[in-house]
Write a structure and sequence with these properties.
Blueprint (H helix, E strand, L loop, with lengths): L2 E6 L2 E8 L2 H9 L4 E4 L12 H7 L1 H11 L3 E7 L6 H8 L3 E2 L4 E16 L2 E8 L2 E5 L4 E5 L6 E7 L8 E2 L14
Length: 180
C-alpha cells in the first residue's frame, strides 16, 4: 500500500504518516505534485523488456505524451539480481533537481521518492499502479532499496531523457531508507 510520511527536514526521526490514497494525493497536490492511482493490470514477465512494457501500456503512454508534450519514454526495471543495483541505487540516492518535471508510472514493485520542499521532506512509497509527477526544480531523491524489484515507465519532455542536477546537499543520508 502506498504511504506518505512528512518530516521536518531537520528531524528525520519523527513523521506524520498517511496511508489513505485520497489524503496522500491531496497533500501532494498542495505541493504541486501529481499523485494518481492507475490500473497496472497488463501481465508482464519478470524479465519483460523495455519494448514489451511500453507495448503493454501504449495507450496510457500515448495519452500522457499528447497531454504533456513528452518527447521520450523509457522503462527502468530492476530486480535483486541486477548486476548494477548498488551503483544505480547510489546514483538516485543523491539529492537533485531536473529542469523538467519527472513522471513515473510504477507497473510493478515499489520505490520510495523523497521530496525536499521548503523545510519539509515528503517520502512517498510508490507501488504498482501509482503515478507520480514531481515538478521541475523540486529537490528530491529516490531509493529503490538494497533488493530492488520494480518496473517504472519514465516520460520526459527532454529528448535526452533523465538528466539530473545534483545539489551537493547530504540530506538524503539522514533519512530512513527503503527496507525491502
Amino acid at each position: 500500500m502506498s504511504e506518505l510520511n512528512i518530516y521536518a527536514d531537520n528531524n528525520p526521526q519523527q513523521a506524520e504518516t498517511y496511508a489513505d490514497y485520497k489524503t496522500i494525493s491531496a497533500l501532494l497536490q498542495a505541493q504541486g505534485v501529481r499523485f494518481e492511482r492507475w490500473a497496472a493490470a497488463a501481465p508482464l514477465a519478470d524479465a519483460a523488456t523495455q519494448d514489451e512494457v511500453i507495448a503493454a501500456y501504449r495507450a496510457d503512454i500515448e495519452r500522457l505524451m499528447v497531454e504533456n508534450g513528452f518527447q521520450s519514454v523509457d522503462v527502468i526495471s530492476l530486480h535483486p539480481d541486477h548486476p548494477d543495483k548498488v551503483a544505480l541505487r547510489q546514483k538516485f540516492l543523491n539529492e537533485h533537481t531536473h529542469t523538467e518535471y519527472e513522471v513515473r508510472f510504477f507497473v510493478d514493485g515499489q520505490g520510495l521518492f523523497y521530496l525536499h520542499i521548503g523545510d519539509k521532506v515528503y517520502t512517498v512509497l510508490c507501488e504498482k499502479g501509482d503515478l507520480i509527477s514531481v515538478p521541475a526544480g523540486t529537490t528530491h531523491w529516490f531509493d529503490m532499496g538494497a533488493n530492488p524489484r520494480f518496473k517504472a515507465i519514465r516520460l520526459f519532455t527532454n529528448p535526452e531523457g533523465w538528466v539530473a542536477n545534483f545539489t551537493g546537499n547530504d540530506i538524503a543520508g539522514r533519512f530512513p531508507r527503503l527496507e525491502n
